[in-house]
Amino acid sequence: MVRSFALIASAVLGAALATVPAMAEDTMLIIAHRGASAERPEHTLAAYELAIDQGADYIEPDLVATKDLVLVSRHENELSGTTDVAVREEFEDRRRDKTIDGQRVAGWFAEDFTLAELRTLRAKERIPSVRPANARFDGLYQVPTFAEIVKLVRAKEAATGKRIGLYPEIKHPEFLLQNAGIDMVDLLLRELRTLGITPADPVFIQSFEVGPLQRLSQRSDFKLVQLVAPISGPADEPAMRYAEMVTPTGLTEIAKYADAVGAHIGLILGPDGTATSLVADANVAGLTVHAWTVRPENEFLPPNLRTGNDPRGRGCGDVQLAALLEAAGVAGVFSDETLRGRDCSTP
After folding, report:
1. Range of the domain at 281
2. Residue 20, SS3?
3. Which pLDDT score, from 0 to 100, does residue 264 have?
4. Which residues are in the GP-PDE domain (predicted)?
5. What is the pLDDT of residue 7?
């Protein structure tokens, strides 16, 4: 009989419960996914600072660009899901329909706003039905620039004496290049130089697309991460599928330009909680693997790791994290709640 995910992961957790926090700190990077986004609206300075205070090794800003070519942090270039732009009458005429990576999207887009205009907006919780407590912070925070995020990181490093890594994702680079004339690769490299950030610093640059990472590999020595999902494929390579990219042959190709694979948890752990061959295959190709994303709410967890029937209720994300470390041996994990990711005994 095949054991359930919960039984296997619980066994892993039981054997390692007392040591998981130390092991996670020593052997597995904790990457604060959009900041401490289970506790603050994502991609705000407040979310990043809380994640750092909770012990994250890296913080992860998703980067889009303004009309005047400033890098800012939003989950998507469409703004209405994470800001109050939809209720701002002065920007009503900015609403557009765009086809992004093959999907028709209606809304307001960062590349149609100058930084000064964008700074008048205020951030809001993206999924208030799941994270209603975060909505109490709606309206308090501006959209941060990448430069401000770096400034925050340096201030926290000075205060704590700990190095804090940056793990930016460039969002929709092919779309922005072809439709707005914005070269995210050039923009990011120029910004890193301006900020005095070098490949010797703790930095990973990630993308779901292939071409931008290949260009970054040719133009810099920063560590690069090819993101892969359970379905579809890179937007800039319509004939390529992620399922083929995570085969041994595909991983060998990725290793020619990237240092790691950022993979959905479902590609790393099977339904019964046992590890797939992805991490081992990637390691053979010379790649490490970072898993995305451990989230605390039932809504985002496998059925056997949920607690109760409320989608907003907190389930056993710590068990999932322990399984990723012990069963799969991933090198890093994106987590929405850094504190729980650090200590499996936290109630």
Report:
1. 5-77+144-342
2. helix
3. 97
4. 28-345
5. 44
- 182 domain-assigned: yes
Q: Read out DSSP for 40-101?
A: S-SSSHHHHHHHHHTT-SEEE-EEEE-TTS-EEE-SSSB-TTTBSGGG-GGGGGG-EEEEET
Q: What is the pLDDT of residue 26?
A: 52
Q: Verify whether residue 75 is a known catalytic residue.
A: yes
**Residue 65 within any structural domain of the chain:** yes
Taking CA atoms, 24 is separated from 97, 230, 282, 308, in Å, by: 44, 25, 20, 28
How many CB atoms are closer than 10 A to CB 332?
26
For residue 6, what are the contacts with CB-CB under 8 A and spacing of at least 6?
273, 302, 304, 305, 316, 319
Consecutive sets of 10 residues in the chain, 347 residues long: mean pLDDT of each? 40 38 61 96 98 96 98 98 98 97 96 98 96 96 98 98 98 97 98 98 98 98 98 96 98 98 96 91 98 89 84 84 90 85 42
Alpha helices in the chain (DSSP H): 5-16, 20-27, 45-53, 115-118, 146-160, 173-180, 184-194, 211-219, 242-245, 248-254, 278-284, 317-323, 338-342
> 112 in a domain, yes or no?
no
Q: Evaluate whether 63 touches 169 at the Cβ level (below 8 Å).
A: yes
Q: How many helices (H) and strands (E) does the chain have?
A: 13, 13
pLDDT at 259: 98
Domain with residue 25: its CATH number is 3.20.20.190
264 a catalytic residue: no
What is 234-246 written as a DSSP string?
-TT-TT--HHHHT
**How many CB atoms are located within 10 Å of the residue 207 CB?**
27
pLDDT value of position 27 = 75
Of the candidates 33, 43, 172, 290, the residue annotated as catalytic is 33
In this structure, is residue 86 part of a structural domain? no
Q: Which of 288, 317, 297 is nearest to 20 (CA)?
A: 317
Query: Cα dihedral sign for 191, 63, 171, 228?
Result: positive
Domain count, the chain: 1
Identify which of 142, 179, 144 has the alpha carbon closest to the alpha carbon of residue 59: 144
